[in-house]
Design a protein that fits this description.
By secondary structure, the chain is an alpha/beta fold. It contains 17 helices and 16 strands. It has an eight-stranded parallel β-barrel, surrounded by eight helices. Strands 11-12-13 form a three-stranded antiparallel β-sheet, with helices on one face. A three-stranded antiparallel β-sheet has the order 14-15-16. Helix 1 runs antiparallel to helix 11 (283-294). The radius of gyration is 25 Å and the shape is globular.
Length: 530
């Protein structure tokens, strides 16, 4: 991969590390939809998954490599432990990509060596060197990560990195695996690597970090000042535990403060050239897509992409912004793709106009999905006078978010009021095609609906999250409902959007139950096969 040392490489791991977040499991179609949007966003590298982890992961990496890993697309990467079978699987899955990368790793901290790997330093040093060379035998672009680098002995870390580069690693990644370090410590570690690894000029220094102390983005920016040129991050900062460094925060920090960072990248201080290849106007759209498909909501006060990120309630702030935006805004909402709630279509609009506008918004849909979305659009248009881009995005995302079509909601009807017991009647079509109807009483209409659905479906689960968001303002707004169910040690999410919040709640619940039921069926099939 040709790199410009004056530009920061953005390595997106939403589809690998981000998907490890509990409840954020994505199917292949959803991963592909996100990968396509990441290409529009302009990321340099997509870590598409962990090919050896499962047949589903292998297929996802391969499909993304084939569809998104084109000549004009990003590098497609697969993670692999420093084990031959992992590396071989990664290489096989990446074959369709024009530009592929194997990312292999092994722990280097003494605590990991003693309790996890049960190996000596010399053994790990030898394995790292051998497995990087093995990866190199499949493709030119190889990344090596010494896991838990931040808690590793620096002198030993220097040795491992030197040997990995000598064996063919073109990128060496320094991960803060447990989110432990602080900016000054991380900057010093990166500086130490640049000064003490003799062949470091032959590789790009990358950083990967978790947000357990809320310092991941700050750590990365300090790493940039000390020589890091690749940042491994996720959309909305999703990931294990407290998540990863957030792509949108890193990119916009580098964009807004480029005069500050320019000298650290060898640029003229006043240069206006972008520090990354990211199309910042695609940030908000990408954030929404990932949030919708993973079921991981973005908190309102989240930097850059939160609904309150550009809102002003204080009278003093409002007065200042009205006179000059620069008084309280350091960037335009438009710069991240947050446009005005523009009216684009109505109930008399045709299929071609609908298709064209969705394409302008970045949605590429199959004919079948487009037809279903158009039917939904007409239904909404009959209920709403004004159809906005945000409404269209909600409808399109609803069709993109594929779930196993096992149980299908045919009817939901509720009766409630101040002096009445909330009662719900539901009809579902089961996987065998039978229509089943039942009714239940609950503490509220949604509770009654869910109890009725549970009586029909009879799948054990524990509802751990129910959230509702309004897509647009007004009494006729589309409401998005996100559901998270827990069964044993796994979490399953469901999402739906509708102008009727009860219908959206029911459909989101059925979507989550379908994911859970589908997983149970797969598990039973595997047990029978075994």
């Amino acid at each position: 991969m040709k790199t410009n040392p004056e530009r920061i490489i953005i390595f997106d791991t939403t589809l690998r590390d981000g998907e490890q977040c509990p409840g954020a499991t994505l199917n292949i179609d959803e991963k592909l939809a996100i990968a396509k949007q990441l290409k529009r966003l302009g990321v340099d590298i997509i870590e598409a998954g962990f090919a050896f982890a499962s047949p589903g992961d292998f297929e996802a990496v391969s499909k993304i490599a084939q569809t998104v890993g084109t000549e004009d697309g990003p590098v497609i990467c697969s993670l692999a432990r420093a084990i031959k079978n992992d590396i071989k699987a990664a290489a096989e899955a990446l074959k369709p990509a024009v530009k592929g990368r194997i990312h292999t790793f092994i722990s280097t901290s003494d605590i990991h060596l003693k309790y996890q790997l049960k190996k000596t330093r010399e053994e790990v040093l030898s394995i790292a060197e051998e497995m990087v060379a093995y990866s190199k035998s499949f493709m030119e672009d190889v990344e090596f990560s010494p896991m838990d680098a931040v808690r590793s002995d620096p002198e030993y870390l220097y040795q491992v990195l030197e040997r990995a580069i000598a064996a063919g690693a073109t990128t060496v990644n320094i991960p803060d695996t447990v989110g432990y370090t602080t900016p000054s410590e991380f900057g010093a570690l990166i500086k130490g690597i640049t000064e003490n690894v003799p062949n470091i000029d032959q590789a790009i220094i990358s950083v990967h970090g978790h947000n357990d102390l809320g310092l991941a983005v700050a750590n990365f920016l300090e790493a940039v000042k000390n020589g890091a040129r690749q940042l491994e991050c996720t959309i909305n900062g999703i990931g294990e535990r407290a998540g990863n460094a957030a792509l949108e925060e890193l990119v916009m920090a580098l964009h807004v403060r480029r005069q500050y960072f320019n000298p650290f990248l060898g640029r003229d201080v006043d240069s206006e050239a972008a520090l990354t290849n990211i199309d910042t106007k695609q940030i908000y759209k990408t954030s929404r897509l990932v949030s919708n498909l993973t079921g991981m909501l973005v908190q309102p006060n989240k930097a850059i992409v939160g609904t309150n990120a550009f809102a002003h309630e204080s009278g003093i702030h409002q007065d200042g912004v009205l006179k000059n935006k620069l008084t309280y805004e350091i960037m335009d909402a438009e710069s991240v793709g947050l446009t005005e709630n523009k009216i684009v279509l109505g109930k008399h609009s045709g299929r071609n106009a609908f298709r064209t506008r969705l394409k302008e918004l970045g949605f590429e849909m199959s004919e079948n999905d487009l037809n279903k979305a158009f039917i939904r659009f007409k239904e909404v248009a009959d209920k709403k006078k004004e159809i906005t881009d945000w409404d269209l995005e909600a409808l399109a995302n609803d069709e993109i978010q594929q779930t196993p079509d096992l149980f299908k909601l045919e009817l939901v009807q509720v009766s409630c009021g101040s002096n009445a017991s909330p009662t719900a009647t539901v009809t579902l079509r089961n996987p065998e095609g039978e229509e089943l109807t039942d009714a239940a009483i609950g503490t509220g209409p949604v509770d009654a609906v869910y109890k009725a659905i549970n009586r029909v479906v009879n799948v054990p689960n524990n509802l751990i999250e129910f959230s509702v968001q309004s897509v647009t303002a007004g009494i006729d707004a589309i409401g998005e409902v996100t559901i998270r169910l827990k069964y044993e040690d796994k979490i399953y999410s469901g999402r739906s959007a509708n102008t009727d919040i009860i219908v959206a709640s029911a459909q989101a619940y059925v979507n989550a139950l379908n994911r859970l039921y589908g997983a149970l069926l797969s598990k039973r099939k595997q047990e029978v096969t075994a």
